[in-house]
Design the sequence.
């Protein structure tokens, strides 16, 4: 299996491509979810503060 | 369509759609990539490097598709001043920039073993690089102009002007002699659109492409929901500051 996945002699070009794709998609995904959570928390705090007399 | 573009309706509809979008996007993308690594046969000319196609080509498709989406949203924003149109274009841009960068990097890594060089200033590669600069310029306009209405207008104008690059990307390999190969997924042959690669290689490519499209909409919906919350936050902070 490892010999197959080495994709000789092109493995050094193939695997970095999959890594770049995973990093790009993973990076945007992480940034999107973190920003969503932050904005949710901040909005909840502000609305709670507004509701207080 | 415009009925669902109302922010309240958009929030309700996107909340219902998002779990299914995430599931379908992850399922399709991972299935297609599994097939690309384990099931697709080596190409008779390119050998195993053909596996790079399964991340490079969907990234290229998404780079152009997202710019086209931003163009439509920008026109709607400019003409009808729709409250969600600017948000849609703005939040699509980082995703498009990411896919464009992935396309350029994976293309360079594919180019070295096939062409003997990572980069050449041929029409397809150069027009893709211009697309990346358009995305970065668009994001730069939003970051540089403080007044959000002015930023939205300036960014939309830039996006509309820049759309001329999309047909250039598409037809560059036909209009000029390029090192980059011509259209090789589907071709016009005898007046008909026909696939030009074997179905065993074509289906995984279409599956990854569909997965990436659904992933784009899932990311976009979450980012637009965040942008709507940010607008509410800005309004609350302005109200607090005002009294």
Sequence:
């Amino acid at each position: 299996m490892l010999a197959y996945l080495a994709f000789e002699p092109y493995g050094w070009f193939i695997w970095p491509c999959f890594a770049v794709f995973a990093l790009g998609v993973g990076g945007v995904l992480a940034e999107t979810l973190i920003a969503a959570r932050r904005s949710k928390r901040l909005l909840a705090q502000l609305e709670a503060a507004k509701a207080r007399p | 369509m415009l009925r669902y573009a109302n922010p309240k309706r958009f929030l309700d509809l996107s909340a219902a759609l998002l779990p299914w979008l995430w599931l379908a996007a992850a399922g399709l993308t991972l299935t297609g990539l599994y097939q690309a690594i384990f099931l697709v046969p080596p190409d008779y000319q390119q050998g195993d490097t053909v596996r790079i196609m399964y991340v490079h080509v969907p990234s290229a498709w998404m780079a152009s598709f997202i710019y086209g989406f931003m163009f439509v949203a920008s026109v709607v924003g400019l003409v009808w001043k729709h409250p969600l149109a600017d948000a849609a274009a703005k939040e699509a841009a980082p995703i498009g920039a990411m896919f464009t960068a992935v396309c350029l990097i994976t293309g360079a890594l594919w180019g070295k073993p096939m062409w003997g060089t990572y980069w050449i200033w041929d029409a397809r590669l150069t027009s893709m690089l211009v697309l990346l600069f358009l995305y970065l310029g668009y994001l730069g306009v939003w970051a540089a102009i403080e007044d959000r209405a002015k930023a939205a207008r300036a960014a939309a104008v830039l996006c509309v002007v820049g759309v001329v690059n999309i047909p250039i990307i598409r037809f560059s390999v036909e209009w000029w002699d390029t090192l980059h190969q011509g259209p090789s997924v589907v071709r016009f042959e005898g007046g008909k659109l026909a696939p030009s690669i074997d179905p065993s290689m074509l289906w995984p490519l279409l599956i990854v492409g569909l997965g990436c499209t659904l992933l784009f909409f899932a990311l976009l919906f979450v980012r637009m929901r965040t942008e709507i919350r940010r607008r509410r936050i800005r309004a609350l902070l302005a109200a607090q500051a005002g009294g």
Summary: Chain B has a mean pLDDT of 92. The longest helix of chain B spans residues 199-242. Chain B has one domain: 10-178+198-242. Chain B has seven helices and two strands.
